[in-house]
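Late entry, zinc ion complex.
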Amino acid sequence: MMSLGYNTMQKQIGAIGAQLRRSLPPSHQLRACIFALFEALDQNDLGDASRLSLQLYSSPESRSSLDEYLGRDASKFMKHVNLLARVARAQVTFLEIVHELPSFSRIEVICVHKQRNDNKRKAHTPFNLSKIFRLLQQPLTEQTCRQFVNPKLNIARIEEDFIVRQKQGLHVHAEVQIIQHLAQARIAIDSADIFPYIGCSKLSCYMCQLFLDAYSSFKIRGCHGKLYNQWIIPDMVNIHPDTAEKLRQTVEMLQQHLLVELGKPLLWSYGPHA
Ligand SMILES: [Zn+2]
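Prediction complete; structure with ligand written out below:
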């Protein structure tokens, strides 16, 4: 599973592409590959775009040619090409593993589509600083703000940050998308057909690990421990009542856990003038 900022990459590569179209000589050996990549991106063909990106990124000759024709923009261009290449690289690696391990003798590939509006949604019930401190059963003072939120910021600044954060769109992380798919397809997470492992190209975040541990026996490759404020469990439709109940209990457990963790003073040192 991987999450790609595809639209951003498409724009960045397209902008540099216009420059490349002008500067690459008509007979240059890279022209066919580069132009095929632009065409794949124009047509939103992620498969071809990724395959061509991998081809481009893996060739030292291509990289030195791009340095020559793009100058300082070459590294920015190759950064996006490398990100796009990750899809094809993951596919190649997966196929190599499949050929090595007998447990992969029966494979079904299912594309999980992200619900379109999840990232545009805002928090149902926006929080403010006073509400958070009431939940933590702490008075809202400069001292408690330094103790529980940030030792270097005052209340006014932290309140401003909260307002900005509450306006940000929410994100359904890849691990949660898998759980959402299984729930909506009414596939039991403890079914013998499900191998209890979610493989991701990146380490999972704090909330994903917490959620998976509370809801399932799925294992992951590890957790980087970061907490993202826009993390959500999205609305799910057509799910079995037992699944809905299990999700409800899981959300309650997460809330309880977070209240305990947020109620612990920060671990870094702070002083009265910090
Ligand atoms: Zn996550």
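The first helix runs from residue 6 to 23. Will revisit in the morning.
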